[in-house]
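Student: Send me a single protein entry containing the residue sequence and its fold in token form, directly below this note:

Tutor:
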Amino acid sequence: MLEGVIVLKGLVEFVGLLLLGQGIVFLMSFGRHETNPIYRLLRFLTSPVVRFVRRIAPRFVDDRHVPALAFILLFWIWVALTVAKLRLQMPAS
């Protein structure tokens, strides 16, 4: 059980860092992000998560805000997995 939580936490961290990198490249490219190959690679790698969040998000959420919403969702999943990991590592008394 602990190993599964650790693996899931690592995957969430990886995807979160990919989304963070995509946001940084977006800000640093000054409006030319669609022609940036690094941005396109990061968008490709994060597209499954962003598509999933688009499916569960309400319709009034604009598409340009979905990656930020995905990052926030991943952050809270990471917090929950960290708590679960700490609880599983505690000795039973």
